[in-house]
Design a protein that fits this description.
Pfam families: BPD_transp_2 (PF02653). This is Branched-chain amino acid transport system permease protein. It comes from Mesorhizobium robiniae. The chain has 329 residues and is mainly α. It is 75% helix and 0% strand. The longest helix is centred in the last third of the chain and has 27 residues. The radius of gyration is 20 Å and the shape is globular. The termini are far apart. The N terminus is likely disordered.
Length: 329
């Protein structure tokens, strides 16, 4: 019965033309971006890494309803772990990703045991505090992490022994995209499973889920660990591709940006995280090049417009437009 249920879950999450359409669009956009913007592959690769990071936060906030401002803790630890592993153990990219994932999961597990017992403002403050402590440790452990100068000297061997990282960034782009694609497939299966449905129930009404026997605390810890694992992978990707890790990986602004990206795109949708990241980073890149000092005004106005007119995020725009057209008819 368990095997049949698992197979049905996979078919439900991946089957159907309507559900395969976003996947086809994602792959098409990747190829189009690669061919149309060959001189911006570095920027687009950073965008893909942030998409992995924001998708991990979507599982935590969008599905489980866990609002934190310390998600950069797992990202930063994953980045440092992958960088140190490449320098002192093995420069293999896939092994480095695994190390980043494990460290991100461990940080999420031990911090989650405390954080998942808190709610509201207490949860936000505790998550920020944990991230600040980790940032201070990374800053003070200069002999290990490089301190304020950052961790340098990271070099990677070819992926699978074949695909070598090049100066232009072609390999890095497809490497980051492949990781993002795999994570999206896994998360689609996860959120369509009984576990994913339980997370939605916990987000809507923890008391009711507790009343029917659901271990709410441990479900939230598990979701936090999975999100932390993916955040660690995002950090590892960043370290491997940029060959640098800085204490800024723990910065509060990074956690805040991730939340803004998710709100812009639409929480609890997975693909909303991709749209929000794309819009946020593109607007920031263009606005900052025009006015390096006041570009935050543009982001602020855009966020206000989305919150007031599209509370479900930019991903709900086609449905909202279709509804307006149908109402006029």
């Amino acid at each position: 019965m368990i095997r049949i249920s698992t197979i049905d879950t996979v078919r439900t999450s991946l089957g159907g033309t309507g559900k395969l359409l976003p996947v086809a669009i994602l792959i098409t956009c990747a190829f189009a971006a690669f061919w149309l913007f060959p001189y911006d592959l570095g920027f687009m690769t950073q965008m893909l890494i942030m998409m992995v990071f924001v998708v991990s936060f979507d599982l935590i906030l969008g599905y489980a309803g866990i609002a934190t401002l310390g998600h950069a803790a797992m990202y930063g630890c994953g980045a440092y772990a992958a960088g140190l592993f490449a320098i002192h153990a093995s420069p293999d990219p896939l092994l480095g990703l695994a190390v980043g994932a494990v460290i991100g999961a461990l940080i999420a597990f031990f911090s989650g045991l405390l954080l998942m017992r808190a709610h509201g403002l207490s949860l936000l403050m505790l998550s920020i505090a944990i991230t600040m402590v980790l940032q201070e440790i990374a800053s003070k452990a200069r002999d290990v992490t490089g301190g304020a100068d950052g961790l340098t000297g990271i070099s990677m061997t070819p992926i699978l022994g074949v695909f070598e990282f090049d100066f232009i960034g072609k390999t890095a782009f497809w490497y980051a995209f492949s990781v993002l694609f795999v994570i999206l497939v896994v998360l689609r299966i996860l959120v369509a499973s009984p576990f994913g449905l339980a997370l939605r129930g916990i987000k809507d009404s923890p008391s009711r889920m507790r009343a029917i026997g659901t271990p709410v605390y441990w479900r939230k810890v598990t979701a936090y660990v999975i999100g932390g694992t993916i955040a660690g992978i995002a950090g590892a990707l960043s370290a491997q591709i940029t060959s640098l890790v800085s204490v800024e990986a723990f910065n509060f602004a990074l956690s805040a940006d991730v939340m803004v990206m998710l709100i812009l795109g639409g929480a609890g949708r997975l693909y909303g995280a991709l749209i929000g990241t794309l819009v946020f980073m593109t607007v920031r890149h263009v606005a900052a090049s025009i006015d390096p000092f006041n570009w935050l005004f543009v982001i602020g106005f855009m966020l206000l417009a989305v919150v007031f007119f599209l509370p479900d995020g930019l991903i709900s725009l086609p449905r909202r437009v279709a509804r307006m057209i149908g109402a006029r008819r």
